[in-house]
Amino acid sequence: MLHSHLTTLNAVSLIVNAFKAEGLPAETLLAGSGICTADLSRADTCITTNQEMRVCANAVALRRDVGLELGRKMHVSSYGMLGYALLTCATFGDALRLALRYPALLGTLFELSLENDGERIWLTAADYRETPALEMFNVEFCLVSLKLICDDLLGQPLPLLGARFEYSAPDYHARYRECFACSLHFEASANAFAFDKRWLDQPLPLADAVTHHTVAERCRKQNLEFTGRQAWLGRIRHLLAAQLHAAPGIEGLAEQMNCSARTLRRHLHDLGSSYQELLDELRFDRAKQLLGQDELPIYRIAEQLGFSETASFRHAFVRWSGVAPSQFRP
């Protein structure tokens, strides 16, 4: 997906650790993502949301309600410098508004907003644009982790006045009450939870004006750097996506980016990626789209993706998805 952006390894690390107690090797969860176990020990590693979604899909295939479990482990401390900035805000409302100001640092896949509904404030997650099959997982993960952040900031559970979800109630919906402890509404018009608006003025127990000023400035600079790297990666992805039928290679792509191949390799490595991983990711995305068109023969799909032989495409698709192209078709 060309809107895919960069994110941290926080969620991936949580998923791996969540299944570690069951004896499931990390390689099983990382399969097809292009992430290796060594990456998990590098705090500065950046990955794309497509890579993160591959790991999430592997986890959901093993346990459908894993989004609720993971959300309850995503404490405010998981967000690094941003988490520290939130904790040192003067009020709860200040902290929420700061979090929404830096969605790249928050790592959210949604457009988050605070909506005033009389006496209530709805913290809403909208405009989801990632893998449709993982929408429910991502809503669960997002809202449960946001509720946990609220609790962490206040130093006590934030009482909720309601929670609503756009999809039908899953068969494990009883577990939702463990996370939200309020009235639940499914097949609603939005994904959100509500609380009394008076909480916005609640002073935070760890507020510190001097420390907050320092870390908030670091967040601002980190956000500029992060979004700049996303824009750079977005340009690479756009160039590659337009040339899947005849990929330019690392040298050709570097020339189009007005840099040396060595510089391009270094930048991609710093982003936790490589030319081949990006090419595979884009080919996989395009392959899934083309396979949805029943009238297009598989050998034609292979040609459009730049494979000289259909067998090579079949082998690559099995490596990406775990199934043959013919099995993937609806």
How many E-type strands? 7
**Poorly predicted runs of 5 or more residues:** none
Order of helices and strands: EHHEHHHHHEEHEHEEHHHHHHH
Number of helices: 16
Overall description:
- This protein has 330 residues and is of the alpha+beta class.
- It has three domains: 1-63, no CATH class; 67-207, no CATH class; 241-328, Homeodomain-like (Arc Repressor Mutant, subunit A).
- The chain has helices spanning 10-20, 26-30, 49-62, 66-71, 80-87, 92-101, 103-106, 135-154, 176-180, 209-241, 249-256, 261-270, 275-291, 298-304, 310-321, 325-328; strands spanning 6-7, 47-48, 111-117, 120-126, 162-164, 184-185, 191-196.
- Strand 3 and strand 4 (120-126) form a beta hairpin.
- The longest helix has 33 residues, at 209-241.
- It is globular and about 65 Å long.
- The two termini are 20 Å apart.
- The mean pLDDT is 90.
Summarize the structure.
By secondary structure, this protein is an alpha+beta fold. Helix content is 53%, strand content 9%.
Which SSEs are present, and which pair or pack?
Blueprint: E1 6-7, H1 10-20, H2 26-30, E2 47-48, H3 49-62, H4 66-71, H5 80-87, H6 92-101, H7 103-106, E3 111-117, E4 120-126, H8 135-154, E5 162-164, H9 176-180, E6 184-185, E7 191-196, H10 209-241, H11 249-256, H12 261-270, H13 275-291, H14 298-304, H15 310-321, H16 325-328
Parallel strand pairs: 5-6
Antiparallel strand pairs: 1-2, 3-4, 4-7, 5-7
Helix pairs in contact: 5-6, 5-10, 11-12, 13-15, 14-15
Task: Name some characteristics of this structure.
330 residues; Arc Repressor Mutant, subunit A; 3 domains; two-stranded antiparallel ribbon; 53% helix; globular; HTH_AraC
